[in-house]
Amino acid sequence: MNAVGVKKHIPVLAKEVPEILVQNPAGIYVDGTFGRGGHSRLILEKLNENGRLYAFDRDLEAVEAAKEIKDSRFKIFHAPFAEMVERLDSIGVTEVDGVLLDIGVSSPQIDDAQRGFSFRFDGPLDMRMDKSTGQTAAQWLNTASVEDISKVLKTYGEEKFSFKVANAIVNLRKKQPLETTKQLADLLSDVLPRNKKDSQQHPATRSFQGIRIFINDELGQLKMALNAASSLLKPEGILEVISFHSLEDRIVKRFFENCCNPASHIDPRLPLTADQLPKPLFSKAKRVLPGKEELETNPRSRSSVLRYAVRTAAPWNEQELT
Fold first, then answer.
1. 88, 101, 113, 175: which could form a disulfide with 93 (CB 3.0–4.6 Å)?
2. What is the rounded distance in angstroms from the CA atom of residue 62 to the CA atom of residue 56?
3. Which residues pair with 241 in a beta bridge?
4. How many angstroms separate the CA atoms of 39 and 17, rounded?
């Protein structure tokens, strides 16, 4: 077995994630969002020589960064985490002891101006997590209707001035195509008022979030990944999900609630015995927030929420999440 490698950054909830996830040092684990490998390295430290860790990432740069981990217990797939069942099955892995999903955009993606995720840097208006496929944010914004742009900004960015923004985008592109993050950020600064409750929040924050989520189908991927991960887990296996905003956390919370209490959706007037009621698919669902010390040393953890639960022995029943 080779060395795990040197840590390059501390991910959010770095202490809690591996302690909760790794209950069997010889088990098989999945890190659904490798990023730059912070959580993966910490998980590997918890495993013995028989343990295995399989990581996933849509970002080719993340897959390239994973080559720094010279460890025979580790393998990464260039694929979205929603495809974990098919990818693991291709190498003969059909059940695992734990899965971690760290949702959303990673710090390296935000900090690289060429990726187009941030309004803080001027760069191409791309926003794709996987640059090898799909349309860029610029391509979509330059062709979508006012109604479609408005719907995305309202649904995924929770932007209350979505129609006003969409109108401004369509009017601007009649004169010149939208090509850079600065163009979009400047437009949003001109069109939108400052947040009265949070004067430090840039007017572009919500719109950039909404466009990014749409371009990468982040919520759709999350819903598929929750089902995929759950179907892989052994009894007593653990699913951990870290989210960074309310749209994601709402989906995760509802998912665990449905899985822990499936009988709550059944009409109590139906004459069913206890044996006929659906059995819980997960138990012990809990929420963990970053502590005071982490909040002081790692500002990115401010909005993070970790939810986790323990898989029961009940046969998996895919959850429909709207």
1. 88
2. 9
3. 101, 307
4. 8
Q: Would you say the C-alpha torsion 269, 274, 279, 285 has a positive or negative sign?
A: positive
Question: Has domain 16-107+218-311 been given CATH number 3.40.190.10?
Answer: no
| Domain segments of the chain as ranges | 16-107+218-311, 131-215
> How far does Cα 317 stand from its chain's mean position?
22
CA distance 137 to 215: 6
pLDDT digits (tens, 9 = 90+) for 92-129: 999 999 999 999 787 778 878 889 889 988 999 999 99
Place of tokens 């730059």: 36
CB 18 within 8 A of CB 43: yes
Q: Of 2.40.50.140, 3.90.930.1, 1.10.150.170, 3.40.50.1240, which CATH number belongs to 131-215?
A: 1.10.150.170
Structure tokens of 232? Answer: 């892989």
Which residues, other chains included, contact 101 with Cβ-Cβ below 8 Å and sequence gap of 6+? 32, 33, 81, 222, 225, 226, 229, 239, 240, 241, 242
Quote the CA–CA distance of 304 and 12 in Å, as a whole number: 7
Instruction: List pLDDT tens digits, range 196-230.
Output: 666 678 899 999 999 999 999 999 999 999 999 99
Extract the tokens encoding 44: 């590997």
Q: Around 207, how many Cα atoms within 13 Å sit in the side-chain half-sphere?
A: 27
Q: Phi then psi for 90, rounded to 5 degrees?
A: -65, -20
Cβ-Cβ contacts under 8 Å for 201 (sequence gap 6 or more): 194, 195
- Joined together, the tokens standing for residue 161 give 């001035």
Instruction: Enumerate residues 6+ apart whose C-beta is below 8 A from 140.
Output: 211, 214, 215
H-helix or E-strand spanning residue 77: strand 74-78
CA atoms within 13 A on the CB side of 249: 14
Structure tokens that stand for 84 in this block: 């974990």
Instruction: Report strand pairing: 305-311 vs 282-288.
Output: antiparallel
